[in-house]
Amino acid sequence: MKTALVLGGGGFIGNHMVNRLKAEGFHVRAADLKSPDFSVSRADDFLTGDLRDPLFCRAVIDRRFDEIYQFAADMGGAGFIFTGQNDADIMHNSAMINLNVLEAVVRRGGGRIFYSSSACIYPEHNQLDPENPHCAEDSAYPANPDSEYGWEKLFSERLYFAFARNHGIEARVARYHNVFGPEGTWQGGREKAPAAVCRKVALAPTGGSVEIWGDGHQTRSFLIVDECIEGTLRMMRSDFPGPVNIGSDERVTINQLVDAVAAIAGKTIHKAHIPGPLGVRGRNSDNRLIRDRLGWAPSRPLNWGLARTYAWIATQIAAA
């Protein structure tokens, strides 16, 4: 039986990865600060602890695994990343986790490890035009991310590739673009835009209004978690180290995102535009490289993922 380790296995993407690996017949160990928020982990072995602690990290990585997935990070949506109030924690905590993980992997003889980077690494000056963002993988340098979260992710990409060169591990790196879906954080300040919009629309009466940060003309693409998992597995099991974008190339404005969720809910919703943290004006996944190297790219329409996510969040609200 093949073995897999999912670091950050109590989180949104990590828990979905555990489920997929179990469905494929893997023996799965997961580790995180906490268990999944909305379901019981299917991991064969779930270790609860802090990967910033090198002793805990070594206890988790106590052998060589066939596949290691590193999702653990201090992260959240725009309300967490772009206020500036969490910058030191974001950089310190995530960097410590990655340093500990790589040291522990080398101690156990190496192996293949996937690192989840972010589209936040792309230069701010390439994302000023909401209708024409430039996010091809080779545009990352000269580096100029718009957040400390992006800077840490870019540093950690280089860290994984440096360990691959110097210590013989097999690193795989992908840059995620706004992953969302059922069982993701949907309240509390760390939720991403699709979950926040679904929550606001679900709570609003028809004819009511929801608050939107900025003018709503900023653009993004959003990737349903099912396709994130599929792309990650294809990347992990390929001969291509990356980095590569894993994201949808269906770009929408935030205003259009609200309209789409309102249509799914069957409600007339007005938008109240207010000041708030925004990030770059435009971002979209450039999928030319992933198509070329993996022969695959995400293809599910945004509405398919939004319908599933809205239904799940509405159920959570009803049960609260």
Structural account:
With 320 residues, this protein is α/β, with parallel strands linked by helices. It has two domains: 3-179 and 225-246, NAD(P)-binding Rossmann-like Domain (Rossmann fold), CATH 3.40.50; 181-221 and 250-284 and 301-319, UDP-galactose 4-epimerase, domain 1. 39% of the residues lie in helices and 17% in strands. It is built from ten helices and 13 strands. The protein has helices at residues 12-23, 54-60, 78-81, 87-107, 148-167, 193-203, 225-236, 254-265, 288-294, 302-319; strands at residues 3-7, 27-32, 45-48, 67-70, 112-118, 170-176, 179-180, 209-213, 219-220, 223-224, 244-246, 252-253, 270-274. The strands form four sheets. A seven-stranded parallel β-sheet has the order 3-2-1-4-5-6-11, sandwiched between helices. It has a two-stranded parallel ribbon with strand order 7-10. α1 (12-23) crosses α7 (225-236) and α6 (193-203) crosses α10 (302-319). The longest helix has 21 residues, at 87-107. The radius of gyration is 19 Å and the shape is globular. The protein starts with a strand and ends with a helix.
